[in-house]
Structures are given as C-alpha cells and as structure tokens.
Specification:
276 residues, two-stranded antiparallel ribbon, 13 helices, 67% helix
C-alpha cells in the first residue's frame, strides 16, 4: 500500500513535462534579467509590460492543457456545460503572466511587504496543491492522475521558492538589512504565473492575489497616466513620531490603508497588510 501511494504522488518527467519545466525556468530567468536591468537603469512602464509578454511565450507554447471554461448554471441551457475559448484563453494566460510579474512589484515600498506577501501566496498555493493531490490520488481516472501530476509539478517550483523566501524574510523584515529590489519581485511574480499556468489552476491563482488585485485597481489612474504617477508612490515618513502617513495622491493599497486606519509605524503597517 505504501509503495502504491508513493508511485501515485511522484512526479513523472515525461518529454512534455520536461518541456514545460524548461519553459518555466526560461520564463523565470528572463524576468530576473528584466528585474536586474530595471534596478540598474529604471525602465519605463511600457517596457515592464513588453518584456513579461515576451517572457510568457515559452509558457504559452509549452501549455498542453484545455482551453475550455465551465459555463455558469444559469447559462448552460443556452451555451452548454463548457465553452472552448481557443486563442482567447491563451491571451488570458499571457495577461496572467504580465499581471503576476508586475503585481508584486507595484504592491511594495515598506520593509518586508514584498517577501511577506509572496510567502503568504506561496503557502496557499502549496496548501491548494496538497489538497488537490489528496483528493485525486486515490481515483483511478486519467483526469485525476493528470491533476496529481500538475500539482506535483507546482510543488517542485513552490517548495524551493518558499524556503528561499523564508530565509530572505529574516533579513528583509523591519528593520531591513537586505532590499530585494525589482529582481525578486519579478522573479516571484513569474514563478506564480508559471505554476498557475503550467499547473492548470490559473483561475484559482487569482483568488490568492486579491490584495494585489485591489492594489492594481487603485493604481489604474496613475498607471494609465490619468493622474500624475511618481516613480515611487510611498507613504510619507514622519520624523517626529517615526510613523508613516498617507500621501493622498499616491493611489496604492498601502496609502489607502493608512487613510482608513490612520498612521502606523512600518512594522505595524506591514504586519496589518500581511494579515489582511
């Protein structure tokens, strides 16, 4: 019995799976290069969209999953149970890669928030993987075996990434001794995109990005240039009481939190946002 369970939860590196694995590593390496270049020369916003788009091509080429979505029950009498989106689904996955890569980077600016949020997202991805493996490993169907393989594939990326992030948090939390820069933010975002797309749970992945989605929607006026967008949209540091204060024309979740709940020191603010 123990041998059977071990076989069911072991990742099988077929040729297609190896292609996906290498495509994922290539995409991550490409955005790490982008992050390093951004840290050195300060890329413009349009470049930060173009490069992740190019980096997502290996993922989209290597993707072997379905392109259908489940139709809501109220529409199934008209559209049926599933709708095949075809190329539109590939456009959606490409946008997922762009969003994940930049979502961590624009939800940043205080000690520990970048690494902290990636640890939380990573933990929930691993929990999701384990739950799905446990639910499907005893079922002798093709779809169940494929689901187990997909989530095992995700774990091969997420467990090493989470361990590295935990070690980094020790030095990045307040008061930070190490600053992660754009390099880590892009690397983390693309790692999540890789496991979401190639692990075939990209729609579920968005549930783990709710704070980042809120921050993105708050940032839209400045990202689109409707409102002036400074290079760094940080809260204001008050030297008298050592607390951070809201800057009202900086449209981020960090500033919105300070506007609603009042001034806070950096450690308290980071902890509150991570709990949220």
């Amino acid at each position: 019995m123990l041998v059977t369970i071990q076989q069911q939860v072991t990742l099988t590196f077929t040729q297609d799976r190896l292609i996906e694995y290498n495509a994922g590593l290539l995409a991550i390496c490409m955005v790490v290069m982008l992050g390093f270049v951004d840290d050195v020369v300060d890329l413009k916003w349009r470049h930060k969209i173009i490069v992740p788009t190019v980096a997502s091509f290996p993922l989209l080429v290597a993707y072997k999953g379905i392109t259908s979505v489940i139709v809501p029950k109220i529409l199934r009498s008209v559209l049926g149970g599933y709708v095949n989106l075809g190329i539109i689904y590939y456009v959606y996955m490409g946008n997922i890669a762009i969003f994940c890569t930049n979502a961590i980077n624009i939800y940043a600016g205080i000690n520990g928030i970048e690494v902290g949020q990636t640890i939380i997202v990573g933990c929930f991805i691993i929990i999701h993987n384990i739950i799905e493996i446990n639910l499907n490993q005893g079922l002798d169907t093709r779809d169940s075996r494929q689901t187990v393989q997909n989530h095992m594939f995700s774990l091969t990326f997420m467990i090493p990434f989470l361990m590295c992030a935990l070690a980094l948090l020790k030095h990045n939390r307040f008061p930070s001794k190490v600053f992660v820069g754009d390099t880590f933010c892009y690397c983390a975002g693309m790692t999540f995109a890789v496991v979401g797309i190639l692990g075939h749970f990209s729609k579920t992945m968005m549930l783990f990005f709710i704070p980042q989605l809120i921050n993105f929607f708050l940032s839209i006026p400045q990202i689109l240039g409707i409102v002036f967008c400074p290079r760094h949209r940080l809260p204001k540091f008050n030297h008298q009481n050592y607390k951070l204060e809201c800057v009202h024309n900086h449209y981020t979740l960090i500033n919105a939190w300070l506007r609603i709940f009042g001034d806070a020191n950096e450690s308290q603010l980071c902890n509150a946002l991570l709990i949220f």
